[in-house]
Design a protein that fits this description.
It comes from Lottiidibacillus patelloidae. The protein has 13 helices and six strands. It is mainly alpha-helical. It folds into three domains: about 80 residues, 2-Layer Sandwich (Dna Ligase, domain 1); about 90 residues, Dna Ligase, domain 1; about 100 residues, no CATH class. A hairpin with a 7-residue loop joins strand 5 and strand 6.
Length: about 325
C-alpha cells in the first residue's frame, strides 16, 4: 500500500510539473524581438491558421491552440488581414488575431524614457494609433486591462493615473485605429518582460521601485549619474529626509516650467516631495531600463545633495553637506 501511495505521489508531482511547463510554454506571453507579420485569408480555417502558427514557431501545440479557441469562442472572432504579432502565448495570440481593422500599414512609434502617460497618449493619438482620451481613461483606472497584468499594479489613493510608470518606453509597431486595450496591454507586457529579465530586483515593493526609478529618470540627464542620484535618494530615505526632487513638483504642477519658483515648492500635492516625506504617491513618468537598474544597483556614497552644473552639460555636482551644496549652487549661478 505504501508503495502505491509513493508511486501515486510521484506521478502526481510529475503531472503537476509537466502541467506547469505546458502553462508557461503555451500561455505565458513572450515578447518577440521583432513583430511577425502574420496573414489570415478570408475563409481560412482554424486548423490552417494553427498550422501556419506552428510552422512560424509561434505555438508549440496545434491541438491545444484549437481546443482553447473553440472553448472560448475565439475561433468565430478571428479577423482576416495582416496581423503584426508582438508576443507569443495562446491567449495573447488570439487577442492579436481577433483585433478588427488590422491593416497592412505599420506605424513605427518610439516612446522616449521619461514620458508621462499624458505625453504617451498625445504621441499615440497624433500618430493615429488610438484615441488619446480613451488611452488616458484606461491609464487612470486600468479598467479593461487583463487581470494577470493588473495584479502587480496596485491601486493607490491619490495617484493621478494608476498605470503611470508601467508603459515601458520602447519602439513599438502598431497599426492605425487599434483597440486601446490592446495597445495598453502591449506596452505593459513589455514593462514586465523587461523587469522579469533582471537577475536581481531591489528590496522594495514594485510600486516603490517604479516610483523611485521614475524620479531618477526625470532628474538624471547623464547615464553615468543615474546610480549616483539613486544613491542620494536612498540616503535621504534612510535618514527620513524629504526627497525634495524638483521633477515631482513639476509633475504636481502638470505643465513644464524652465525654472521653479519658491511658491511652486509649496503646491499641495501627494506628489510634491518638498512637502510630503518619503516617496510620492506614485510614479511621475515611464522609467527606462537604466533607471530601473539604477534603483536595483544604486551607487553607495555619502552624498545627500546635488545641483545641476552651470556649464550646460546636464551633469550635477554632488555634496555631503548643505554648506558645500550652497557653494555649488552659487558657482552654477555665476556660470549662467
Amino acid at each position: 500500500m505504501k508503495k502505491v501511495v509513493i508511486s501515486l505521489a510521484i506521478f502526481t508531482l510529475i503531472f503537476l510539473i509537466t502541467l506547469a511547463f505546458v502553462y508557461i510554454d503555451q500561455w505565458q506571453p513572450r515578447v518577440l524581438d521583432e513583430p511577425v507579420a502574420f496573414s489570415i485569408s478570408h475563409g481560412q480555417s482554424l486548423s490552417e491558421i494553427s498550422l501556419s502558427l506552428k510552422e512560424n514557431g509561434l505555438i508549440k501545440s496545434r491541438s491545444l491552440f484549437e481546443m482553447y479557441g473553440k472553448y472560448k469562442g475565439y475561433d468565430r472572432k478571428i479577423s482576416e488581414g495582416i496581423h503584426y504579432l508582438h508576443s507569443t502565448g495562446i491567449e495573447t495570440i488570439y487577442k492579436q488575431i481577433m483585433s478588427s481593422g488590422q491593416a497592412k500599414e505599420r506605424i513605427t512609434i518610439t516612446i522616449p524614457e521619461g514620458f508621462t502617460v499624458e505625453k504617451i497618449a498625445q504621441k499615440l493619438g497624433e500618430a493615429g494609433v488610438v484615441n488619446a482620451d480613451e488611452f488616458l481613461a484606461i491609464a487612470k483606472t486600468g479598467e479593461g486591462i487583463d487581470e494577470s497584468l493588473l495584479k502587480n499594479i496596485p491601486t493607490v489613493e491619490g495617484t493621478k493615473y494608476r498605470l503611470e510608470g508601467y508603459y515601458f518606453p520602447d519602439t513599438y509597431y502598431f497599426q492605425p485605429n487599434m483597440d486601446v486595450i490592446t495597445v495598453s496591454e502591449r506596452m505593459i507586457e513589455q514593462f514586465f518582460s523587461v523587469i522579469n529579465s533582471f537577475e536581481v530586483k531591489p528590496d522594495l515593493p514594485i510600486h516603490e521601485w517604479v516610483t523611485l526609478a521614475s524620479i531618477v529618470e526625470r532628474e538624471a540627464v547623464l547615464q553615468e549619474e543615474r546610480g549616483l542620484i539613486a544613491g542620494v535618494f536612498f540616503n535621504r530615505l534612510k535618514e527620513k529626509w524629504k526627497l525634495q526632487a524638483c521633477a515631482t513638483v513639476l509633475y504636481a504642477i502638470g505643465k513644464p516650467k524652465d525654472r521653479l519658483l519658491y511658491k511652486d515648492l509649496e503646491i499641495e500635492s501627494p506628489y510634491n516631495t518638498y512637502l510630503s516625506p518619503g516617496l510620492p504617491v506614485g510614479p511621475i513618468a515611464s522609467p527606462g531600463k537604466e533607471s530601473l537598474l539604477a534603483v536595483v544597483h544604486p551607487i553607495d556614497h555619502n552624498f545627500f545633495y546635488y545641483v545641476v552644473k552651470g556649464d550646460g552639460s546636464g551633469g550635477h555636482n554632488f555634496s555631503e553637506t548643505y554648506s558645500q551644496h550652497n557653494d555649488y549652487k552659487a558657482e552654477a549661478l555665476k556660470q549662467h
